Amino acid sequence: MPPCAYRGGVKITGSSDWREELPFDVPVLVADVVPGDPTRCSECGIDSAPHERDALWAVRRRNPKSHAGVVRFHCAAHLPPPPAPVESEEVVRLRRTAARAVRAAAPRRPTVPERVAPVCPTCFVEVPPTGVCGMCGERVA
Asked: In Å, how far are 7, 105, 110, 117 from 114, measured between CA atoms?
């Protein structure tokens, strides 16, 4: 049974067809997936001559607007390159560890100590650099 969800009182169900059986980013001969009449490459355009299905490749790509992805037919001349390989978690972890080590070994700028401002003993407010309390007028050294 296909997954379903309720939105706004309308039941929305996912369809189940041959496209969902294709793996993502792996070219598959169209003749092996869906037989039929000759068809066109999605890159060649509608003015091009149809290709036999054993000369076309179906490629399922991820699409942010559809969880099922998008399937396009491509001739051998327009077959897209495979996606860049995804780094393993081990490689990512090693790269982060190396970056942390470089940051830890880098010399740090000396921190400037915070200026401690005098406090008026009568009002308990910070006294400006003039040394005179703005509240009571008492001179604080």
From this structure: 57, 25, 12, 9
Q: What is the C-alpha separation between 26 and 59, in angstroms, rounded?
A: 6
Q: Which helix (H) or strand (E) holds 11?
A: strand 10-13
CA distances from 22 to 30, 35, 110 (A): 11, 15, 58
- Comparing CA positions, the residue from 53, 82, 72, 68 lying closest to residue 20 is 68
Burial 94-124 (b: 16+ CB within 10 A, else e): eeeeeeeeeeeeeeeeeeeeeeeeeebeeee
pLDDT in tens, 119-138: 999 999 999 988 999 999 99
pTM to 2 decimal places: 0.51
For residue range 34-71, list pLDDT tens digits in order. Answer: 889 999 999 998 899 999 999 999 999 988 888 888 99
**Beta-bridge partners for 51:** 39
